[in-house]
Amino acid sequence: MKKVLSLLLVLIIAGSLTLTSCNNNTPTTTTTIRVATDATWKPFEFVNEQTKVIEGFDIDLFNAIADKAGLKVEYVNVSWDPLLAGMAQGTYDCAISSITITTERAKAMLFSDSYFAAGQIVVVLKTNTTIKSKSDLTGKTVGVQLGTTGNFEVDKIVGATAKPYDDIGLAFQDLMNGQVDAVVCDNPVALYYVGANATKLKTTGTVFTDEQYGIAVAKGKEDLLKKINDGLKKVKAAGTIDTFSTKWALLK
Predict the structure, then answer these.
(1) Do 184 and 88 touch, CB atoms closer than 8 A?
(2) Strand 94-95 and strand 31-37: pairing?
(3) Closest CA to 176 of 200, 205, 142
(4) Is 27 a residue whose pLDDT tops 90?
(5) 31-116+214-247 has which fold?
(6) Which end of the chain has fewer CB atoms within 10 angstroms, the N or the C?
């Protein structure tokens, strides 16, 4: 009888362990991905000076997409050129950093659907009366962020000299200090810096390019791209992009 009872006890315990094992092995839908960003581009991505945490419109947006897509995110703060090189080499799974979708970039990486419309604009000192549009930049020194569409656009202007910076904030600082004649960058970023320095800076002329921001995804990661696009569609449908635009005072 003891042997029978012992056998029954063993079978019950074994069955219990089997059920527990099955429950513990239930697959999870959460995947951790490395997301690169150049956190020098207020108000889209920047390091909060108090908390030292990366935040901004793009970060809020990607967190919302990740939540919808079942993705866990590890952000990596990296400067612009290494970010693009890293994406081309597959160092990062994806990147969100106010990246304009271009034909050239699309040769080295995949892109999500667009999520924000932007364009280049000229910023000058408020006292400046001679530079009224990009046509007046001939013979001028213009601050730009290295490797950006703003950099490329200034390079196209005959007689203009582009002065590249790793951090666009330094370009605006030099503008206010009289070290450059103007700055060219994405209009939402320009409006952010003009708003923060309303007594010193102004935009001049009109937005002169038509650009779309997209999330870059490493080539070969089509499944990840689909998850991101699906998450982005849900975020758009919920009106979340408008909510974040209001939060970060973005004018589209």
Answers:
(1) no
(2) parallel
(3) 200
(4) no
(5) D-Maltodextrin-Binding Protein; domain 2 (3.40.190)
(6) N
